[in-house]
Amino acid sequence: MLNRTALEALTRRPLPFLRSAWPWRCAAYLLGSVVPGAATALTAAAVLALPMPLGFVAGAGVLAAAILPVAWFERRRLRLVDGVPLPETPDRRRREAGLAVMTLLAMWWIDLLMVAFTCAGPVVLMLTPLVQPEASVLPSVVAVVVGVLLLPVAAYTIAAWGGARGAMVRAILAPAGPELSEVLRSRARLVDAFEMERRRIERDLHDGAQQRLVALSMTLGMARLDLPEDSEAGRLVGLAQQQAKQALAELRELIRGVHSQILTDRGLAAAVRDVAGRSPVPIQVDVEMPERLPAPVEVTAYYVVTEALANVAKHSGATRGAVTGRVERGTLVVEVRDDGHGGADPAKGTGLTGLADRLAVVAGRLSLSSPAGGPTLVRVEIPCA
Ligand SMILES: Nc1ncnc2c1ncn2[C@@H]1O[C@H](COP(=O)(O)OP(=O)(O)OP(=O)(O)O)[C@@H](O)[C@H]1O
Ligand SMILES: [Mg+2]
To answer: H helices of the chain, where?
Structure first.
């Protein structure tokens, strides 16, 4: 999984997190504020030694001169801990300048203390045999072991502080305005409206057209009983009954595509098994849900599985596929994979991009891996809260 921010990376399992570049990126990010901060502070302190009021004016001048470059640097170095592009705001310059003043006056030395304290413990312990060569072997070994064990703790602390610092900088430079949440709310409303419309169509088809076709098929069956089996009329009525049954089967399929009753009644795991069972490519299903999930989450995941399995059947040339689904730390993770020839490209159709749109509304994420030659993996993550 690709993490876009240090805070997201913290939610990974310990080993992948510790092996990733995130702890180092966060350390680099924190030390990045120390360099301009310390340089400005030292210069300001040096000029403050000049006779007053000249010293005071020169100190303020040093600070003022540092604001522009530090503001520029702050925005760029944020990428180390937060890969999501910053949106433009109308008062960008003012915000950047405020952030630069904050960094120069306070944040740089807080960052420095944070890194120093976090790293000092494990480093000093690990260096015990060098620092205290006269100490006996056992305490030295214990100190080294404890130092090594504390390294992961330091990595987590630095990543947490780096991530929190990044989130603070983002909040200052690009606060989530009321317009943005309003846009999201109206998109959610639109999807709700579509969902209601789907259900209405499904009810109409189910209670109207489907019942009529069932009645038609039964009437034809009765008419056939009254006709001699080898007569032309009997053959034609039999054919008409076959066609009515076929139309009924197609209508049922259509209704399922519009709205899955199994999903509503029995939940995501059952609905996924149902879709997979009807796929022409054999699909292994491993979906376990601790409980029923919120309706928008279930419906979105269901459409992802339906579309991904339709793609497997239509495009992949696969001999088998698999669907897995789990809730991990409050996030539903569903993966659909196939052993086909790969090459899926959202730009070539509307299915995958439509899924990405749906996921955006429930704050979910769609990832796709489909190198030429295969295999193809579609993965979605949807927060359940
Ligand atoms: N599992 C897959 N294996 C190989 N290629 C795939 C797979 N899924 C999708 N593709 C390729 O990616 C393209 C885009 O898929 P997408 O679902 O967006 O559109 P579509 O299936 O062609 O049309 P639509 O879904 O709108 O009916 C497909 O046209 C196909 O070429
Ligand atoms: Mg498709």
So the answer is: 6-9, 14-19, 22-48, 54-77, 92-102, 108-126, 128-131, 137-173, 178-204, 211-226, 232-258, 261-266, 268-277, 295-311, 351-361
